[in-house]
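Fill in residues.
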């Protein structure tokens, strides 16, 4: 900039003549001194506040102008345009810049500073130089655009247009000489004559079919261009008598294109008078060129070609060569410069011919097919067997159609269905699992939806067992392959259709619809509110949080699918999908069903569903509203938001079943009872919903209300809605068992009122518990409001009248007239009466009221209940009990167990006998409970109920249970719970009646005693109270336990006992019995000690026993949850009678509690072992068929533990006697021949380890005992494991010298020598 300014000052001669460089320098120094003298002192960091105030006063007193003044100029498009008025001002500005003012200002004559205001008008030439970065001002694009827009608004539109034309070099002046296009040589044609008012619409397919000449249509042109050219191939003419014009432009061009080279167009041959025929001239030029080329030698042509190529750009030459190679497959054509080049269409047609040779046909209507890509079109070719066989290397894979059905390779399915042309087998129809996995991971939504939908159908069919015999363990293998991760990732997609498909697939995987139907049916039965936990048997919910965090997602899904799904953040995604995404009705239902499964898993996951922020609030607000618009049919409804759904109410019921705290939260925070009453106050027809949905919502609402009352929660709802409850109860008068006397929907009315009676029963139960509330409630600090017994009596009176009416109709009904709903209606009404009679004992009534109650009971039993057994309908109903004799070992259609995803192991558990006949079992259980409650209040009526225990069908049912063999697994045993309860109440009523009068019932003691043993084996978790009651009061009862006959021959047993007692040194104990009778008398005389042992064992888990007692007695104030944990296991194992010995053995391994202070075994331990051996002995003698269900190997292993408890316990005479008797009993019945120590033994990881302990104990404290030696020799037989023999002859060879067996006739050898050779 300084150089440019210096050049400017040199041109101004008068400016340079005034000053010299020396003077100029002197002036600059003077100005600088004056400037410093007049400038105020700059504040420094050392200045105080007083110094700053003095500087401020000095500045104000000086009143000098600022050195810089900012002047805002008016913004205009000519901001940088020339604006200096005169050259003198320019010279002054330049001198100011040279003198150091930098163009900022100058001193006036009066000493004040004046500011120079100027613009760089005449310095446009400076724009080309780089300016210092310190003076450059950056401006954002936004500010620049805003400034330009403001400037454009200030300029006149005409001036703005002129500026734009000047800037873009637009010439707006028109030329005077305008030449029009010469159209004299173009023939004029008239349009065709037609009868249509408008021209026909041009369709691409018809135009392409009519196209005959491809040379005129360029393949690289657009579709519109091809249509236009194809549409102009027809001559346009007018059929007229006076004129016949057929020559057209297209025909001329067609003729010319066949004769003339394409680069000869005839442009420029036209003269002013149009006397030259262009076509003739073009043809003549072409012929001259051909003639000249034919007369020239080849050398001249090549020389001319070389000269021409040398004069051209090499890039153009290369482009022409590549183009020629592309159009002609012959490489010589690119160098021969052949003037007649083939059009692109000809080349394309040649490619098509090649493809036709390979049976590949591409329709000419397909777009973007030029050029053809053969590799991508191979899938369209017909597949041969050779190609398919070469693709199969690892065998055939299962293939499925879009509905999940298996497809065979030889099935005849058309290719247009969409099941072909993919994977390694293009000709095979269907998709493999691997291909479906690929589809679910595709980036295209349509492919994802196809894969997810197909997988959902596969899961549904596998749950229904439709792949039996074809595919085994399909879902477990898919889970191990990671299908759950694919489904969860798809749920995070942003496409609504993919989210919907993912929800359906997850629902089909984790939810088995048949199981839900079965659980809904069981929920209406006796104690149906108790549901099993669907947590896997080997769960990890009990682990610490630190241990859970170390488990990977894959390992977690392998062990527990539901817990893995929750860890994958399904709950947050479900809340987002339900609240934000506008999903359809089916998707909402699928999401709620998945939440069902999570709630059924465990209390922990149910609490997670409740506690997750916003999830339950979203479900209740959207799908359990208090008001909604009418919905007549759900077929045309795209969304169910804003309508009450029974699926949402069922989810609430499942969560309430999980725990008391969850129920209390839902009732208090979400007004659950108010919503329930809103749905049940009116009839289902008044809910303005589809009839089926309205009925389901009514039933689910009542079930949820019942669950709340089971905890003793919401008792105040009885008083709040008493009028509604009484209105529903009074409607029972209109109901009858005969369908012909009911309204339009009799079965629905029966079903709804039947569920309502279950609600009334809970109110009666709560009212009966309020009697001694001062003792029970104060201890548990329960502050629930009480229900008055007087109000309950009013409701029961109505139901009591209805029972009399219905029983009268029952006596007249036939089997065809009574439905399942009618039986349920009668059953629930009798349950109300049973609970009422049980609570009646707790009331402090007057004697007069008691007498009236007894008389009313006698009339009710005599005139109604006793007559049930004489009816034909009752006998026909009991015929269904024969179906309960179900053989599990021959069960067909049993599903494979999924360890990580528990389910009922039957395709349709609703058809399972105990479930299909559940209403009949429930009816008989209710009769038994009603009889027990009446007898407890009036014992004189016991003989009136003998028919319940002596009916021939019942005795046949009892006998069928005694031959039962337990082979079930998983939670399927829960389906037999109604049979367990029926058996328990039969035994209970039988013992009550026999305690009063046993004349007619004593002959059936053995049958009922076997039923007790059946219940001990089959009772599941949650029924600990039943097992304890039977074991303590009925199992070891002298009359019942010894009711049967001894199965063995008395003489044989006497000889067996004689051999055993002779071999024993009886001099040590005078209490030894001398024969079979005395031995049996010894065992029988200690039945009370055995009973005490059993009571001690069965009450060991006091917590579970107490919980079961509260559940059985319906004491809601003490119940915390209705989920039965570990429902897949029974309370007692098959060999429960050996468990006291096993417990002592485990205790001896951990501590010395079995030893006394001085070393010998404590008397308590000795007593437990003796009584256990006596119990085993009695069961082997009286119930050998029951004991035969226990494996002989397990028996030997259990008894062997007797030698490991203490050091010399086995030497105790009584223990030694009973141990030898049992061993000889097993040998006498040939059970030892079935012994296999390699078989798994419950409770023992390996018999090898147990045998090592036996060898060590024998080597240390055996004293050469022959009985101990016999147990050592049993595993050394030839048919036993070789490792056990190696153990004796290797590490413990020293014990051989101590092995001593008696060989005399009296003692004999228990195991024959032939077994060791």
């Amino acid at each position: 900039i300084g150089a440019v300014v210096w050049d400017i000052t040199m041109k101004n001669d008068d400016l340079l003549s005034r000053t010299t460089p020396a003077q100029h320098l002197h002036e600059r120094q003077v100005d600088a001194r004056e400037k410093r003298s007049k400038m105020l002192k700059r504040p420094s960091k050392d200045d105080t506040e007083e110094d700053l105030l003095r500087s401020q006063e000095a500045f104000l007193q000086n009143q000098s102008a600022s050195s810089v003044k900012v002047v805002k100029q008016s913004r205009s498009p000519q901001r940088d345009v020339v604006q200096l008025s005169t050259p003198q001002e320019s010279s002054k500005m330049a001198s100011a810049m040279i003198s150091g003012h930098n163009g900022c200002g100058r001193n006036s004559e009066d000493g004040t500073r004046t500011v120079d205001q100027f613009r760089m008008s005449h310095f446009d030439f400076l724009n080309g130089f780089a300016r210092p970065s310190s003076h450059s001002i950056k401006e954002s694009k936004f500010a620049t655009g805003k400034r330009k827009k403001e400037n454009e608004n200030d300029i006149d539109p005409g001036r703005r247009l002129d500026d734009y034309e000047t800037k873009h070099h637009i010439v707006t002046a028109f030329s005077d000489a305008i030449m029009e296009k010469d159209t004299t040589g173009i023939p004029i044609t008239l349009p065709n004559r037609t009868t249509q008012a408008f021209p026909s619409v041009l369709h691409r397919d018809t135009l392409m079919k009519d196209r005959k000449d491809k040379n005129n249509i360029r393949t690289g042109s657009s579709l519109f261009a091809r249509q236009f050219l194809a549409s102009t191939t027809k001559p346009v003419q007018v059929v007229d008598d006076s004129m016949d014009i057929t020559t057209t432009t297209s025909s001329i061009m067609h003729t010319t294109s066949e004769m003339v080279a394409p680069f000869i167009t005839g442009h420029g041959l036209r003269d002013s008078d149009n006397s030259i025929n262009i076509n003739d001239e073009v043809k003549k030029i072409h012929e001259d060129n051909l003639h000249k080329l034919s007369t020239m030698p080849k050398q001249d042509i090549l020389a001319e070609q070389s000269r021409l190529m040398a004069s051209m750009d090499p890039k153009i030459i290369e482009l022409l060569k590549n183009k020629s190679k592309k159009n002609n497959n012959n490489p010589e054509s690119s160098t021969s410069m052949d003037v007649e080049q083939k059009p692109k269409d000809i080349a394309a047609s040649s490619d098509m011919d090649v493809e036709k040779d390979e049976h590949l046909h591409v329709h000419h209507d397909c777009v973007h097919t030029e050029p053809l890509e053969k590799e991508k079109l191979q899938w369209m070719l017909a597949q041969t067997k050779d190609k398919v066989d070469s693709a199969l290397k690892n065998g055939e894979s299962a293939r499925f159609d879009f509905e999940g059905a298996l497809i065979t390779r030889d099935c005849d399915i058309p290719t247009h269905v969409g099941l072909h042309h993919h994977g390694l087998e293009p000709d095979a129809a269907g998709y493999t699992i691997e291909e479906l996995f690929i589809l679910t991971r595709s980036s295209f939504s349509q492919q994802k939806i196809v894969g997810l939908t197909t997988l959902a159908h596969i899961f549904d069919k596998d749950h229904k067992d439709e792949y039996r015999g074809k595919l085994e363990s399909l879902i477990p293998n898919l889970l191990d392959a990671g299908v759950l991760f694919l489904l969860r990732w798809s749920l995070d997609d942003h496409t609504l259709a993919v989210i919907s498909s993912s929800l359906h697939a997850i629902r089909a995987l984790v939810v088995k619809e048949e199981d839900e139907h079965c659980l809904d049916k069981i929920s209406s039965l006796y104690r149906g509110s108790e549901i099993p936990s669907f947590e896997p048997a080997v769960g990890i919910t009990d682990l610490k949080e630190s241990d859970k965090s170390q488990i990977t997602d894959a390992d977690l899904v392998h062990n527990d699918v539901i817990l893995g799904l929750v860890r994958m953040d399904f709950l947050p995604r479900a809340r987002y999908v339900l609240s934000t995404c506008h999903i359809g009705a089916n998707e909402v239902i699928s999401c709620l069903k998945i939440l069902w499964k999570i709630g059924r898993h465990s209390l922990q996951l149910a609490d997670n569903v409740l506690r997750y922020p916003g999830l339950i609030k979203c479900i209740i607000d959207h799908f359990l509203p208090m008001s909604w618009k009418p919905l007549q049919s759900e077929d045309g409804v795209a969304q169910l938001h804003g309508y009450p759904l029974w699926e949402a109410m069922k989810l609430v019921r499942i969560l309430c079943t999980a725990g008391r705290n969850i129920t209390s939260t839902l009732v208090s925070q979400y007004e659950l009872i108010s919503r329930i009453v809103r749905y049940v106050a009116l009839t289902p027809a008044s809910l303005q919903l589809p009839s089926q949905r309205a009925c389901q919502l009514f039933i689910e609402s009542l079930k949820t209300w019942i669950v709340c009352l089971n905890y003793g929660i919401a008792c105040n709802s009885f008083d709040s809605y008493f009028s509604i409850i009484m209105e529903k109860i009074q409607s029972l008068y209109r109901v009858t068992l005969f369908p012909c006397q009911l309204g339009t929907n009799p079965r629905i009315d029966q079903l709804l009122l039947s569920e309502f009676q279950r609600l009334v029963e809970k109110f009666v139960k709560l009212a009966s518990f309020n009697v001694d509330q001062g003792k029970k409630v104060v201890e548990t600090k329960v502050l629930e409001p009480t229900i008055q017994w007087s109000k309950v009596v009013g409701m029961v009176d109505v139901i009591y009248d209805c029972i009399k009416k219905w029983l009268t109709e029952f006596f007249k009904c036939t089997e065809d007239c009574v439905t399942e709903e009618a039986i349920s209606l009668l059953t629930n009404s009798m349950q109300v009466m049973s609970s009422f009679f049980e609570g009646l004992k707790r009331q402090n009534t007057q004697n007069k009221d008691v007498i009236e109650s007894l008389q009313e009971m006698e009339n009710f039993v005599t005139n109604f209940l006793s007559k049930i057994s004489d009816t034909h309908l009752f006998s026909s109903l009991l015929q269904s009990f024969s179906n309960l004799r179900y053989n599990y070992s021959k069960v067909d259609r049993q599903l494979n167990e999924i360890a990580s995803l528990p389910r009922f192991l039957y395709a349709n558990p609703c058809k399972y006998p105990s479930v299909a006949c559940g209403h009949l079992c429930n009816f008989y259980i209710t009769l038994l409970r009603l009889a027990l409650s009446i007898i407890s209040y009036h014992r004189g009526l016991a003989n009136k109920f003998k028919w319940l225990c002596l009916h021939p069908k019942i005795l046949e049912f009892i006998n069928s249970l005694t031959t039962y063999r337990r082979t079930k697994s998983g939670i399927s045993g829960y389906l037999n719970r109604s049979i367990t309860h029926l058996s328990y109440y039969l035994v209970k009523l039988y013992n009550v009646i026999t305690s009063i009068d046993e004349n007619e019932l004593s002959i059936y003691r053995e049958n009922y005693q076997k039923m007790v043993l059946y219940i001990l084996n089959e009772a599941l978790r949650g029924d600990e109270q039943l097992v304890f009651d039977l074991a303590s009061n009925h199992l070891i009862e002298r009359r019942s336990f010894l009711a049967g006959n001894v199965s063995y021959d008395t003489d044989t047993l006497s000889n067996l006992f004689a051999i055993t007692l002779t071999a024993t040194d009886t001099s040590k104990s005078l209490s030894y019995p001398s024969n079979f009778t005395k031995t049996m008398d010894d065992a029988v005389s200690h039945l009370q000690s055995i009973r005490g042992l059993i009571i001690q064992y069965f009450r060991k888990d006091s917590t579970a026993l107490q919980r079961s007692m509260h559940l059985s007695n319906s004491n809601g104030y003490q119940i915390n949850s209705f989920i039965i944990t570990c429902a897949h296991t029974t309370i007692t194992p098959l060999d429960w009678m050996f468990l006291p010995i096993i417990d002592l053995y485990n205790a001896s391994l951990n501590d010395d509690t079995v030893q006394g202070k001085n070393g010998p075994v404590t008397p308590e331990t000795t007593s437990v072992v003796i009584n256990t051996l006596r119990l085993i002995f009695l069961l082997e003698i009286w119930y050998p068929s029951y004991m035969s269900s226990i494996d002989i190997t397990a028996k030997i292993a259990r008894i062997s533990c007797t030698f490991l408890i203490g050091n010399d316990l086995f030497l105790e005479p009584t223990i030694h006697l009973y141990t030898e008797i049992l061993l000889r009993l097993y040998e006498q019945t040939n059970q030892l021949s079935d012994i296999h120590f390699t078989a798994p033994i419950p409770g023992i990881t390996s018999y090898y380890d147990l045998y090592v302990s036996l060898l060590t104990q024998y080597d240390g404290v055996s004293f050469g005992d022959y009985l101990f030696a016999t147990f050592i020799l049993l595993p050394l037989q030839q048919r036993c494991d070789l490792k056990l023999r190696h153990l004796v002859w290797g590490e413990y060879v020293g014990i051989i010298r101590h092995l001593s067996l008696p060989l005399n006739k009296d003692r004999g050898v228990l195991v024959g020598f032939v077994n060791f050779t």
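The mean pLDDT is 76.
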